[in-house]
Amino acid sequence: MPATIPADSVGIVTPTTLHFDDPLQLQSGKQLDQYDLVVETYGTLNAKANNAILICHALSGHHHAAGYHSKADRKPGWWDSCIGPGKPIDTNRFYVVSLNNLGGCHGSTGPTSINPATGKPYGPDFPIITVPDWVNSQARLADRLGIKCWAAIVGGSLGGMQALQWAIDYPERVENAVVIASTPKLTAQNIAFNEVARKAITSDPDFCEGRYYDFEKIPKRGLMLARMVGHITYLSDASMGEKFGRELRDKAPKFNFDVEFEVESYLHYQGERFSESFDANTYLLMTRALDYFDPAREYNDQLEVAFKKATCQFLVVSFSTDWRFSPERSELLVDSLIKAGKRVSYAEIEAPHGHDAFLIPTPRYVEVFNAYMDRIADQLDIDPGNGSLQAGLGAEGGTA
Length: 400
What we know:
It is a single chain. By secondary structure, the chain is an alpha/beta fold. Helix content is 33%, strand content 14%. The chain is built from 11 helices and 12 strands. It has an 8-stranded mixed β-sheet with strand order 1-4-6-5-9-10-11-12, with helices on both faces. Helix 9 links the parallel strand 11 and strand 12. The longest helix has 17 residues. It starts with 15 loop residues before the first strand and ends in a 7-residue tail after the last helix. The C terminus is likely disordered. Keywords: Acyltransferase, Amino-acid biosynthesis, Cytoplasm, Methionine biosynthesis, Transferase. Pathway: Amino-acid biosynthesis; L-methionine biosynthesis via de novo pathway; O-succinyl-L-homoserine from L-homoserine: step 1/1. It catalyses: L-homoserine + succinyl-CoA = O-succinyl-L-homoserine + CoA. It is found in: Cytoplasm.
């Protein structure tokens, strides 16, 4: 953490674990009899409860989206650049809720959690989770917090898919869906990348068919490879070239197969870090949720029909160098929303950062995001919060 907390930071925050006893029926046909969700909140719910924003995380994200957990934290939450006083999601006027999704490995019930039926971690027995399953669990979270309708549901990448699903499944509970660097379904190439990542994990000798917890092992090599493959796809060729070029670590080739180039060193570092902080079974689940997402499937592949029920307004944002979820995918989504008669704003942002651009506050991106969030506040006549948040989370919840 910096020596002093920046004025535009939400400061020190404390996550809260919420327990749910009502069984959750899953799309796979299985059910979770009970589960936990770990949540962080920033800002304050106002008296009308009309200023709530749900932040949906991407593949490796979690509940810690902004601020710091302690003064020893080296980095803030994963979307701190966009959440806080004066930022696009301004916590002076919005009440922000961010959670770790089911199946995650940062406190919400997932493969590392104890299965009540066996007394051991779920591991590979944890059921397949889909985007609609997440949305159903988030709707229960909203009920718990006293939120009948979200001012906006905001997400990048996999998070954007959740915002779209909300608009379809709970139209009466969403005023705005903000869909950033996302897609209405994966291309075959994207599914192929996910399969390579999963194969890297499941072929690691330490994977032990997903029961590595029982043997006190971690399939680090597989996780590392999966992350390395993923990381390449999150960046653009231009940004990798600008960051690393073809620089050699030791200035001259050694003519062997050790790590020679700076870009190799970077990928190894990213993979190593990830393998120490993320769970392999969770990675499998999250990539499968990405693969399965396709809201048009049950409407004869007619996306515009899938969106007929939606009543919210949409903001769709894409980035010029995002080849993983390219602008063409967002344009397909926008075309379908227009055919369905929905109100949609669209911006393609010139940015060199590839898919990861949605995490980077480039000026044009921030301008577009700010303008849309201002419009939400004006249209909903949002007042600043007045402290009713604690009715939802209890005395220990939310911003410390």
